[in-house]
Amino acid sequence: MKQGIRERFESVIQQSDLISRDLSWLKFNDRVLDQSKKEHRSIFEKLKFLAITASNLDEFFMIRVGSLYNYLDYEKERVDYSGLREEPFKSTLMEECQKFHDAQHTHFTENILPKLPEEGITLCNISKLTEAEQKKVKQYFERAIYPMLTPMVYDGYRTFPILMNKLLIFGVVTTSPGERKDMRKLSFVQIPANIPRFFEIERANSLMLIPIEEVIREHIVSLFRNVDIQSISLFRITRNGDFTLEETEDMDANFLEEVKRKLMERKTGRVVRIEIEEGYSKWMLNSLLERWKLKSDSVFHVKRQSMIDFTGLWQIVGNKRFKDKLPQMPDPVKPLSYQEEGEVEIFDVLQEKDILLHHPYNNIDSILDLIEKAADDPGVMAIKMTIYRLAKESRITRALLRAAENGKHVSVLFEVKARFDEENNIREAKKLQKAGCFVIYGITHLKTHTKLLLIVKKDGDEITRFVHLGSGNYNEDTARLYTDIGLLTTNEVLANDVSEFFNVITGHSMPTTYQNLITAPRDMRNQLIAYIEQEAENARNGLPAGIFIKVNSLEDSETIYALYRASQSGVTIKLIVRGICCLRPGREGLSENIEVISIVGDFLEHSRIYHFHNNGDTRTYAGSADMMVRSFDKRLESLFKVEAPLLEKQLMNILAYNLKDNFNAYVMQEDGTYVAKHPVGDEPVFNVHKEFFNLDPEKVMEVQLMPS
Asked: Per the database record, which ranges form the Polyphosphate kinase middle domain (predicted)?
């Protein structure tokens, strides 16, 4: 982009009161990449975070850039929060993506590759191997790889082949002997996804890793006999994976078929990015650009000493040889409100008090045990739950199947539109349906993102409803990596609210009100704005006023402007936003009283907490909803009020600890950039991802977010 145009675009961006969602997301991935650069991390942690940035970027291109192309290709108007129209915004976005791509590969080649030999790892091509090792590679190619490769030629007689999303592909330009060079043909060889990224050769004290593309490149001539190879180019494409399901009244078989059809479209969606290794054929690349209607800014060049697709680094991170090299997470601690964990019957405890779980510091087994016991307890009559994502080998699916076999009523809403988990959810849902469970495949035009569980248990003449409400998925795998909140309760007010909400989800019911539940798409935005405006009113009346919110993303403009108005009224506002933040903090006359931090570290921050000071009569909510248009308008969501004094203090303490962190925290600047937070002077290091393993119940009860 020319300098003058770049400066003009930047001026428009900085004048906007809002920050672009997509540009903000790139800043988030910057923070993830920064984790890979931290000196205190082992080389394996650095590889892990680099791989995460790569999978993040793949999804960004498939969904966000794919969505942008939906506007461009169909000539629909769109004005980004930055103030830029479609084409200027795409140019700006691609320039930022190119910068990030360069930062990734510079970090890999300059900081990671030179350190690998210190850990007994060498990434190399075949020329660095001994003769015996080269023979071993050749045997591997001939026996395991060669039969799986299919050269696909494109010429005047054959149609252009379907090249698959996110696979490594060789583009091979050939001519027949004696033919002119302008009679060249282009063939493609795709490397199947089920071939390991590296071929491993064990040496006495080291592990040699040969990228699979080097194995194939060395022997690719065997696929093109009796022709002349003019060039061999390695590339990878990313396709548009963004789709919106059409609204339909048919909720069953046709709906599932629609989802399956859209999943197939992902494989043939328009190309939005090309990653290509240096030394490529310019004729081939130009042919691809013309065919896919792409400009050069969508081409990302990779040097030979680097590698295409850093997600392949998971093979190194997950190698059993290096298991002890990764940091071990401390054992979970008992919840402050459930010190009897593992010693008493959870059904009995919940009859007496509520339990707040904070994962991964507290074990998810409390929830899994509750569901498993419910499946076998003769007193349990019904289990209802919403499911967004499950572990591959889910204990929950097994428990629900057993509950159905034991004659209990089991109702499950499986969200089959959970992005990239659709196929797994459809498969698990069908298992339950065959077992006699009542299964709903999502609400057609809404995603069900709320996390709810209701167990109905009879004990003599007494009926008790056991409820779990959470911010995280019922997934025992991610529960060890994500920070989430879960409330277990028999509180009748919440139980009534949840029962009513299940009737909305599974039937045709529209309750007039909930007491301790805020739901979307109906009420959530308006209710949160009302609470924000109440704080603003209190501040104008000279009363103490404060708003403390922790979310994954903050993007909804209506709530952002409500926060701006509250700031202008003098409300203290502190926001903990892990990822996208479209609010611009600290701008004079707009948001001087708003501070924003982002926590990025060992665990993925996934919990959502909303706390309003309310002149001392505090309102504290937790749940699954972010402050996003999709959360408020396009999803079934819920936030639940936490009233028990110890549990509310725990949530307040989570906010306080996050704000105190000086190890994983990044402070957002007015221009949308972030600065890492460090201890000041003699201030001790405070790492929130360690401190929650060492909670002091007495100190938790003393926590204050506002000065007394």
From this structure: 133-316
